[in-house]
Amino acid sequence: MNKSKKIAVFCVMIFIFSLITCLFAQAQDKSTAESKKKAVRKKRTGENRMKFTDEQKEKLKKIKQKYGDNLEDLQFKTMKKRIELVEEIRKENPDRKKVDKIVQGIVQIEARKQKIIINQFFEIRKILNPDQRKMYVRRFVRQLLKMKRGTH
């Protein structure tokens, strides 16, 4: 791989690492009881506006169960890698190759998480009627944009 490709790959890795760090920081901020209550209310409100049928609610529950465990597992793996990264960076003489390898591992885990999220999106999208789909896509896009905005 030539030098410019290596630099480009490294820049992408740094960008993704920054994104992950911001998302993690936001997740930590929302861990208070009040934030959780707010999130539940928001979620309920959104679901009420979408007016799911009982059949849709059952399908949604199954979809969320199907993907939820995988996402939690990957979130745990990401956290372990971040801790490993922090431990290496804090050393008097951090090993650059090891840091790069850890970052690459984080990038791979995040890519898998994004694929799961996208797969879940498409599966949920299939069970919605046109009006619900429009609202769902709008909310999903808004979430994607919030994640991107968190990197600056």
Write structural notes for this entry.
- The protein is mainly alpha-helical and 152 residues long.
- It has one domain (3-31, 53-149): Four Helix Bundle (Hemerythrin (Met), subunit A) (Up-down Bundle).
- Helix content is 87%, strand content 0%.
- The longest helix has 36 residues, at 54-89.
- The radius of gyration is 19 Å and the shape is elongated.
- It starts with a helix and ends with a helix.
Helix content: over 70%
Unreliable segments (pLDDT under 50, ≥5 consecutive)?
Answer: none
Please tell me what the overall shape is.
elongated
How would you state the average pLDDT, rounded?
A: 81
| CATH architecture identity | Up-down Bundle
User: What is the CATH top level name?
Assistant: Mainly Alpha
Evaluate the radius of gyration.
Answer: 19 Å
What is the H-and-E element order?
HHHHH
Largest sheet, in brief, is:
none
Q: What share of residues are in beta strands?
A: under 5%
Helix segment tally? 5
Q: Give me the count of strands.
A: 0
- Beginning-to-end CA distance, first to last residue: 29 Å
The domain count comes to 1
> Helix/strand-derived class?
mainly alpha
CATH fold category name = Four Helix Bundle (Hemerythrin (Met), subunit A)
Reconstruct the topology from this structure.
Elements lengths: L2 H27 L3 H18 L3 H36 L6 H31 L3 H20 L3
Helix pairs in contact: 1-4, 3-4
Please supply descriptive tags for the structure shown above.
mainly alpha; Four Helix Bundle (Hemerythrin (Met), subunit A); about 0% strand
